[in-house]
Amino acid sequence: MKKTVFIIMILTLIAQIIGFARDLTLAYFYGTSSTSDVYLIALTITSVFFFLIGTGIATGYIPLLTNIIQNINSQEGLRFTNKLINLLLIICTIVLVFGIIFTELIINVVAPGFDQNILSMAILFTRISFISIYFNILTHIFRGFLQVKESFFISTIIGIPFSIVLIVSIAVSYHSDVIVLAIGYVFATFIQFLMLLLHAYRKGYRYEIILDFKDKNIRRIILIAIPVIIGTSVNQINLIVNKSIASTVSVGGISALEYANTLSNFVLAVVVASIYTVLLPLLSKKAANSDIAGLKEILSDVIIGMMVLVIPAISGFMILSEQIVTMLYGRGAFDNEAIFMTANALFYYSIGLIGYALRDVVSSVFYSLQDSKIPMINAVIAVALNIILSLMLSKYMGISGLALATSLSIIFCTALLIASLKRKIGSLDFKNIVASFMKIMLASAIMGVIVKVSFMILSLYITFVLSLLISIAVGALAYFIFIYLMNIKEVNTIVNGFKVRLFAKQ
Fold first, then answer.
1. Among candidates 225, 218, 215, which has minimal Cα distance to 367?
2. Helix (H, G, I), strand (E, B), or coil: what is residue 203?
3. How many Cα atoms sit within 13 Å of 149 on the Cβ side?
């Protein structure tokens, strides 16, 4: 598992860097303008909503497919997959028609602050982007199929051509017609789907026109998916709430939140998504074999591993938010006001990173046990709390208040989710987890001081960008030295593993 996670993290890092170049391209050409707001809202409506549905279906699909293959055979698993795909194609068609008819109403709900000219552009963008719902849904299914087949790497690299297509479309749109933005997005989602489909065929998938609404597994996945969709929707719904309120706060507020969220999610995408990709199928097998002790052991190691990587990132974002935003976005149409809004949002978003990281891991345990009710209830609480806090804090802090509200709500609800898990499977090794947490916090604080002091000194003698990069490198090196010397078992195991057999067969 550790070798697979490490390779996936490297591939994810590469994909995220290219994906980040996509956001830099958008910021360079369009900054925090009404055009970037419209583009991001169109993507929010068509991708976020179907990301939730796709995630919900895939989360239930992986344990069910694993169970069918283990207890019956692979052929029956293939029939189940095709039944699910055909059902989803019908649902997507219904939603597509509904979405095109009621586009204006949907946009008015998601972004009520748009004036008539911006609204007209948003309607056109969104209607074109709706075509992508087929590719988004099927991408999630084939990603899950390949994960069950223990083929993880293709799912990680599909983001690379996706981002390249978007980068080209953004540049072309600026020099031709902005509508190319929406068309480019649809084409990019198709490329992702096509790559997964071709690889799935290599792993034995064959399409068949088969539909059975009475199939017990189809009914089962629907029952699982509905609460999972709600349970995994916290981050996305919070973003939608924030963007909706941001559209009434200031022009460019939606874009500022999106750029800041992209930066904070960089850590989650590289660390959490890499581990989660391998974790859910592994936990599903432990749950299928009723190996609760093994499940708890894996979970404890993963929680500490998450904290080792995420907490120092939080420290770095909070200390250098303005400098990081300036270095990455501060050019072209991205002016000082855009830097100020984005940096403040990044500062407050970063506080909630540990909540998001641990919530996804803990939720995966519930899903592996085919219990989606508890994460669903937790998500409802998180969304309600975020709405209340967003309305309150945005009045006094503007865009920053929206980011802080999101972080506070997710931290609170993650704590509730961990407490629920303890009641369900018994006590984890909390003594070791808490002790490791305190050591990681101390090392991160020391790292923060080193980074800040280094930057202040170096910036007097060398360029801004070079001094920032060197300071970050020095801080990261100091952190890993401190964390290793603090004798955290999981860290020592990883380091010793790299020393002995970095790429040895597991």
1. 225
2. coil
3. 22
Burial (0-12, 13-18, 19+ Cβ within 10 Å), 33 = middle
**What is the total residue count of the chain?**
506
Of 259, 231, 278, the C-alpha closest to 330 is: 259
Q: Which amino acid is at 488?
A: I
Q: Are 212 and 357 contacting, i.e. CB atoms less than 8 angstroms apart?
A: no
What is d(CA 117, CA 50) in angstroms, rounded to the nearest whole number? Answer: 27
Judge whether 359 and 418 are in contact, CB under 8 Å.
Answer: no
d(CA 472, CA 466): 10
On whether the CB atoms of residues 266 and 17 are closer than 8 A, the answer is no
Question: In Å, how far are 54, 68, 172 from 216, measured between CA atoms?
Answer: 20, 12, 49
Torsion of Cα atoms, 369 then 371 then 372 then 373, to 10° = -160
Pairwise CA distance, residues 424 & 273, whole Å: 24
Cα(313)–Cα(146) distance, integer angstroms = 31
Please name the amino acid found at residue 214. K
Which phi-psi region, left, alpha or beta, contains residue 487 (left: φ > 0; alpha: ψ -120 to 50)?
Answer: left
- Supply 291's token pair: 């190996």
**379 vs 220: CA distance, rounded Å:** 21
More confident position, 483 or 293: 483
Rg over CA atoms, the chain: 22
Please give the single-letter amino acid code of residue 239: L
Whether the full predicted model's pTM is greater than 0.90, yes or no, is no
Say which residue the tokens 């055909």 belong to.
Answer: 86
Judge whether 234 and 180 are in contact, CB under 8 Å.
Answer: no
Rounded distance between C-alpha atoms, residue 307 and residue 418, angstroms: 15
Among residues 299, 236, 293, 237, the alpha carbon closest in space to that of 268 is found at 236
Most confidently predicted of 216-230, 334-348, 463-477: 463-477
Among 35-44, 146-155, 432-441, the range scoring the smallest mean pLDDT is 146-155
- 51-105 pLDDT, tens digit per residue, is 666 666 766 777 777 778 877 788 888 888 888 889 888 888 888 898 889 888 8
Q: Give the list of residues 6+ apart from residue 198 with CB closer than 8 angstroms, or none.
A: none
- Residues 334-364 as b/e (b if ≥16 CB within 10 A, e otherwise) read beeebbbbbbbbbbbbbbbbbbbbbbbbbbb
Residue 195 near residue 154 (C-beta atoms within 8 A) = yes
CA 220 – CA 412 distance, rounded (Å) = 31
DSSP for residue 331:
S
Q: At a CB cut-off of 8 Å and minimum separation 6, what does 469 contact?
A: none
pLDDT digits (tens, 9 = 90+) for 187-214: 999 998 999 899 888 888 888 888 777 7
Contacts of 163 (CB under 8 A, 6+ apart): 15, 18, 19, 21, 22, 188
Question: How far is the C-alpha of 175 from the C-alpha of 184, rounded, in Å?
Answer: 14
